[in-house]
Structures are given as C-alpha cells and as structure tokens.
Amino acid sequence: MNNRAPGTLAVGRVKYFGRHHGEVNSSAFSPNGQTLLTASDDGCVYGWETQTGQLLWKLGGHTGAVKFCRFSPDGRLFASTSCDCTIRLWDVARAKCLQVLKGHQRSVETVSFSPDSRQLASGGWDKRVMLWEVQSGQMLRLLLGHRDSIQSSDFSPSADCLASGSWDKTIRIWKPQPASLLVQLKGHVTWVKSIAFSPNELWLVSAGYSRLIKVWDCNTGKCIETLKVRAGGCSTQVAKKAPREGWEQEGPSEPSAMLLAGNPGCGPFLCLHPRWETPSVWSC
User: Fold this and answer.
1) Exposed e or buried b per residue across 5-32, where buried means at least 16 C-beta atoms within 10 angstroms of its C-beta
2) Torsion of CA 122, 148, 223, 143, to 10 degrees
3) Which helix (H) or strand (E) holds 108?
4) Which of 252, 249, 256 shows the shortest CA–CA distance to 276?
5) DSSP classification of residue 51
6) Is-contact 234 254, C-beta < 8 A?
7) How far apart are CA 93 and CA 87, in angstroms?
8) What is the side-by-side order of every strand in the sheet holding 256-261?
9) What is the C-alpha separation between 45 and 184, in angstroms, rounded?
10) Do 236 and 218 meet the contact criterion of CB atoms below 8 Å apart?
11) Rg (CA), the chain
12) C-alpha span between 26 and 39 (Å, rounded)
C-alpha cells in the first residue's frame, strides 16, 4: 500500500518475464520478495529473481498444465498444482521435487500452507478439500460438502480455521482438527475466485467473477461490506469504500486489503495487509 491520495498509484520500473510457452495461470512471491514463481500451461514452474528478472529455474515434472503455485511461509518450500491431478512439493534451495501428492481425482486448482508450513490444504475440480502433512506427504483429512469446483483456499493466521471458495458460489470455513464445518458463507451470485483471512481472523474477504468483493464476519457468517469493481476497457477500476463506522478499534492491528484484479471477467485476487485503510483494487 502506498501513502498517496486515494485513486493514485505509484508505478516503478516494470519487469517482463517472458520465457513461458503457454498461458501463465498463477504467480507467487517468496516471503522475502526475492523470488517470483510462475505456473504455466506448458507444464512447468518457473522461478525468477525479482530484482534482475533472471530465470533461476524451469522445473518440469507435471504431465499437464500447472494451475497454481505458492511458497510456504518459512520460504523453504513451494507447492504446485496441475491438471494431472497431483500436487508437487519442491525444495527452494535445490530446486528439486521432494513429494508428489496423489489423491485428487480431477485437476487441482488451489493450495495453501498452514502458518507453520507443516500442513497443506488443496482443492480442485473433484469438489474435495484435502489436508496433507507436508513432511510425509500423507493425506490427513478429507473435507466434503462443496457442490462444485474449489478454486481458492486460505488458512487463518492461527491455523484454527481453513476457508475454501468454490464455483458453487459459497465459502466454507472449516475446523481442520477435528474436521468439521464451522460456517457456510452465502451471498456471491457468481463463482468465488479468491479468499483471504484478515490477520486478526475476525474477517474473511472474498472476490467473485461478478467483480463483487465481500467482507464477512467469521463469527456470524454475515456479509458486512460489499465492494464493486468496475471494468473499463482493458484495465480494471474500483469503487472505493471506507471501512464502516466502528471497524477501527486498535489502529495498526486492524487489517487492510489490497485486492489485485485480473483481466476483466476473471475476478480479482486478494491479499491482506496488517493495517486497515481504505480497501483498493489495483489492476494487475
């Protein structure tokens, strides 16, 4: 987030990462910001040095398009998912595949690490949420209930909750251990594209293909804010809305959201920051 007036964005030098041989489906920065991952339809995961744009590695192994990638919070591992129904766990330092996780019956669309990097949640076209132990690659739990493809997932900062967003237009918040459904969030009129917990775990933010962004109370399951992203031409703009009265209680401990918008019609991606200011959607 920058400190400029609302509606302005400082853009620095843009780097171009252009060695893919297929569409880029996902990207992720390492926790220290020095490495960028990209997942491509060409079946490979690419690693880039963010400062120079240098290609560090191009990793094959998946037998289908790579749909999603994400670093572990400790920065030692990253995970990739594919249409080949598998998840691969990679060692960052050696750029080597450590585990191939098998269990999904259709394309795997999302993964998220627990805050301690010891567990992994995955979801995909088979409508299943799976919990895995990272070290052993063993599947620990299977969470069922969604009626359509699962496109997004996120652990709460304490790892007490796991959220999953689906094309069935709902979000489910689960208790991972023991496995149980805590609350189901309904309100999106189109597929749910992206979700993220606030740092204090009081709220969940979700984005749909209809360009509606919703803020939910995790305790009650009620939607307390709705933001609308307006598309104009090839870029994406946002109708900004200040937090509702009563949200600011402890200043810096309140969350703020940077909502990254994809191409028009694709729905925005969400990333939460430790402070609550005016929510913004930036074209990406």
Assistant:
1) eeeeeeeeeeeeeeebeeeebbbbebee
2) -40
3) strand 108-113
4) 256
5) T
6) no
7) 19
8) 268-273, 256-261, 280-283
9) 34
10) no
11) 18
12) 5
- Residue 253's SS3 state is helix
Tokens 């749910």 appear where? Answer: 192
Residue 88: CA atoms inside 13 Å, Cβ hemisphere, count?
26
Backbone angles phi, psi at 10, to 5 degrees: -85, 120
Q: What contacts 63, CB < 8 A, 6 or more positions away? A: 43, 82, 84
Using DSSP, state whether 66 is helix, strand or coil: strand
Which residue is it, tokens 């963010």? 50
Taking the C-alpha atoms of residue 93 and residue 197, their distance in angstroms, rounded to an integer, is: 29
Do 196 and 180 touch, CB atoms closer than 8 A?
A: no
Which amino acid is it at 63?
Answer: T
Q: Are 76 and 91 in contact (CB under 8 A)?
A: yes
pTM, entire model:
0.78
Alpha helices, DSSP H, located in the chain: none
d(CA 208, CA 265): 10
pLDDT in tens, the chain (284 residues): 344 444 555 556 667 777 788 888 988 999 998 999 999 999 999 999 988 889 999 999 999 999 999 999 999 999 999 999 999 999 999 999 999 999 999 999 999 999 999 999 999 999 999 999 999 999 999 999 999 999 999 999 999 999 999 999 999 999 988 888 999 999 898 899 889 998 888 889 998 887 788 999 988 899 998 887 665 432 333 333 333 333 333 333 333 334 443 333 444 555 544 443 444 444 33
Instruction: Say if residue 268 is preceded by a cis peptide, omega within 30 of 0.
Output: no
